[in-house]
Design goal:
The chain has 299 residues and is of the alpha+beta class. The protein has two domains: 22-123, Phosphorylase Kinase, domain 1 (2-Layer Sandwich); 130-298, Transferase(Phosphotransferase), domain 1 (Orthogonal Bundle). The chain is 29% helix and 21% strand. The chain has helices at residues 67-70, 74-89, 130-136, 142-158, 218-234, 245-253, 268-277, 288-295; strands at 34-44, 47-54, 57-65, 102-110, 113-123, 161-162, 171-173, 179-181, 188-189, 194-195, 216-217. A hairpin with a 5-residue loop joins strand 7 (171-173) and strand 8. Helix 4 (142-158) runs antiparallel to helix 8 (288-295) and helix 5 (218-234) crosses helix 7 (268-277). The radius of gyration is 20 Å and the shape is globular. Belongs to the protein kinase superfamily. Residues 1-22 are annotated as: Disordered. ATP binds at residue 63.
Length: 299
């Protein structure tokens, strides 16, 4: 059962040698400020999401690193959570990026045993992610969502931040039907158009150059946007019919792309834009500034 956070010892697994104490981070929130319901409202990877409150703010999604799933590599996952919080904290005050209320580490009771966990807190979106929202809301404004995603990505790129794992399930939908980017666990930060990192994203959304050892790039985010747009507009996975990541990777390298004939109700200009996004050549793909401009007439 998960209830109210307890005080913590700063020498827990989230604290790595050579790092500043977690309490000194600008995003740190003392766990005694956090309360959660005792049942999760979502899960993914090595974490679970609980509905709760932070410093009296209700309607908060508390993403918690679950020791059960993170073990025996809890140190590695805790460090990844910390990097994600640091990157996320830099993304403030944009209507298409989910804000981070804060993050921290604490000892909570899981299955009768107190274990130290890491958490991140953000607004709870009852509409869920874009894929879930569009499945439940057939009349949802897809072009508005895609425009919002493009605006959010334009903002990230203006800060020289590469998302590196853009897809529909990593974009939430707020109460007004606006897209909100989330999941910054793969982000890469740098001062140029490219930056290297060890986490590569999701195969079906990766550009061909990544399979030849090239670094993650802004153009790679655009490729992922094209695949994301296709999945949202069609309701299909980008590479349905392929059974393995190896098969999907080979298809991308062989310049195979999703069949856009299923997008009969989508404006031709938008289809053309999507196809430009997944062009084989990174230099031929539009920027997110270009994408925002192209989609503006449809929102």
């Amino acid at each position: 059962m998960l209830a109210e956070g307890q005080s913590r010892d700063s020498k827990g697994p989230i604290q790595d040698q050579g790092q500043a104490p977690i309490e000194e981070e600008p995003w740190f929130k003392d766990s005694r400020m956090v309360k959660c319901q005792d049942y999760s409202v979502g899960a993914g990877g090595y974490s679970r999401v609980f509905l709760g409150e932070v410093r009296g703010i209700s309607g908060v999604a508390i993403k918690v690193l679950d020791p059960k799933f993170a073990s025996p590599h809890i140190q590695e996952h805790a460090e990844a959570f910390r990097r994600e919080a640091a990157a996320w904290w830099k993304l403030k005050d944009h209507p298409n990026v989910m804000p981070l209320y804060g993050a921290g580490s604490y000892s909570w009771k899981w299955n009768g045993v107190h274990q130290e966990c890491f958490f991140m807190a953000s607004p709870y979106m009852k509409n869920g992610d874009c894929r879930t929202y569009l499945e439940k809301t057939p009349g949802g404004d897809k072009l508005k969502l895609l425009y919002g995603i493009a605006r959010g990505m334009e903002y990230l790129h203006s800060l020289n931040i590469i998302h590196a794992d853009l897809k529909a399930i990593n974009v939430m939908v707020d109460e007004n039907g606006n897209a909100r980017l989330v999941d910054f666990g793969s982000v890469k930060m740098g001062n140029s158009e490219t930056t290297k990192g060890d986490r590569v994203g999701t195969t079906a959304y990766m550009p061909p150059e990544r399979f030849f050892g090239e670094p993650t790039t802004k153009a790679g985010d655009v490729f992922a946007y094209g695949m994301t747009a296709f999945s949202m507009l069609s309701g299909k996975k980008p590479f349905e019919g392929y059974n393995t990541d190896t098969e999907i990777a080979q298809a991308i390298v062989d310049k195979k792309r999703p069949d856009v004939s299923c997008l009969a109700d989508v404006p031709e200009e938008v289809i053309s834009l999507v196809q430009k996004c997944w062009d084989d050549s990174p230099k031929s793909r539009p920027s997110f500034n270009d994408i925002v401009t192209a989609l503006q007439p449809y929102v």
